[in-house]
User: What shape does this take?
Amino acid sequence: MTTLRAAQSLQLGSLRLKNRLVGTAHASGAVAGGIPSPGDADYWRRSAAGGAGMLIVGGTVVAPGSSNRNGNITEAWRPEVVAGLEARARAITDEGAAAACQLVHLGRETLGAELWSHPVAPTDVRSPREPTRPRVLSHADVDGIVDAFRVSAVHAWTAGFQVVELHAAHGYLLAQFLSPNTNFGPDAATVARRVLILDRIASAIRDACPGVVLGVRVSAEGEDEAGLSVDGLCEVLPHLSEFDYVNVTVGVRTTYVRDMAVADPPLLGEVGRLRAATRTPLLVSQSFRTGASIEAALQSGADLVGVARPLIADPNFPRKILTGQEASIRPCVSCNEDCRAFDPVLLCSVNPDLAPPGQSTRPAHPLTLGPTRRSSTRRRIAVVGAGPAGLECAMRLASDHDVTLFEQRERIGGQLAIAADAPNRSGWRRLLDYYSVAMPRVSIRLGHAVCATELEDFDEVVLAVGAVDTFPAEAVGAQSLLSSQALIGGGELLRGAGHVVVVDDGFGLWPAASSVEAALAAGADRVTVLTPAPAFASGLPPESRVQYLRRLSGKPVDVQVLSSLVGVSDSTVEFENTLSGEKARLDVDRVVVAGERRSLDWSLLAPEGARVHVIGDALVPRKVAHAVAEGSAVAREYFLTARC
Assistant: This one.
């Protein structure tokens, strides 16, 4: 049998990696006052146990100027941080992975958080994400930054990290030095002069940490600000030969974490060019989700392939890839929700086993009715509704009990299946495919509208019947569709409509946002959005919102903010300004309404006197994360523990 390239070992400086899969830089968020807190090391131990050859810990800043006020970023320059770094490094190496610490200075960027200090940069060019220009660094300031990286690297090295990675990507300070758009003048006239700060930092770290493996992360795209085009990056790479490896990714702040609209790894087609431009081991990353794309990158010349979000969704991702168990990977869907919010720590919408420190699973609160029944015997359990809540619950229960899953539609997924039909939202399909494969022991009854009498024969009943969106009275009309109707088949019901009006509910969530893209995909020559809010798409995750609005750039889309629907007739829509009360009309072919989601009435399905659990949107319509966590909680708390 042919050995996967990903399974081969690799010499990286003085270190030998056991395979070619790397968990690229991210943070647990379990940090308080700039110091790793209890639970941080636990996260890294679980991740390292999943089989990656190396884990890179991110979220580690080198100077007070990059420290935010909420203190959830590790402050590596402080001596008192060493104990927390040591716990991190030991957690990783004890599980057989190499431990890497990525060091960053934000420069002119703030991550959108309040800082104690002020932004700095090589020049006074303002970031498009910030309201003010940075202070220009003096030569003495640059000397101080070089030393800040040295001191922080010494702390990481002393703590047991074998690898230090300099963050020169995503438009942060070292990237600002590399870009001719943010570093210009006589001292920065050539690539070699712009790279000089990296040479100085690398030399200082090697002198202070003999034997350390030293890497650098750079990125393509964003060349109109503090980034580099692929061509520009290929000019820089030959100047980085003193590093033990180069980690290449994409984007700048707000675009470097791609959402589910990106189907394939952005750098996959560029690996050959990048390989030709560098003599050092090459790590490529961003949106590698499958074994096929990983092997393709390695065959094209990459030495290592990095993943971050797939490791968050399933820490056993590397082992499953390497052992032919890819179908069992709980997939990252690239929704950019909990993994980017850090509320309160790193979480994952599709992984209920990733929890805040001190808790074994994500908190969830199903509604449970009826008598408590404890039994060590195998039980017959009915799960009604094959949305994410019901699917998660049925999958987890099936190893210990006889489970029948009822779904009135002809396919699994519920509202999530409709969301997956929308343009650029097919990432949800990966989660549904995962459930399809993971439930061989579940008896699935599709196209079956179950009644209460059928449920009386079961020992336990889980009601995950979901919710429906509803028309507000003013939106009812012959041309009106609910967003759930408009998204089916990617917008089939919108074909032939020249002008489509999308009525948002003011919360700026995906139903309205996806309806706009569905209308455009269906051939609409004009789309008007009405929203009572002061902005459109404001409820999307910040990085997804930036990428979404970029996709709409140049498209025939008009947004009327602070505008409420008054009524719909056969061919017109009337709306009014929420401030002035001034009314206006639009001729329209179709109206798509993001209506209020209301739970379906589950009470008629609850057998009298039975033990019943209500989960997901049937309880209250919320996010996928709530549905998945509640499905898991029912299986864990009410059934699996009954055997004890």
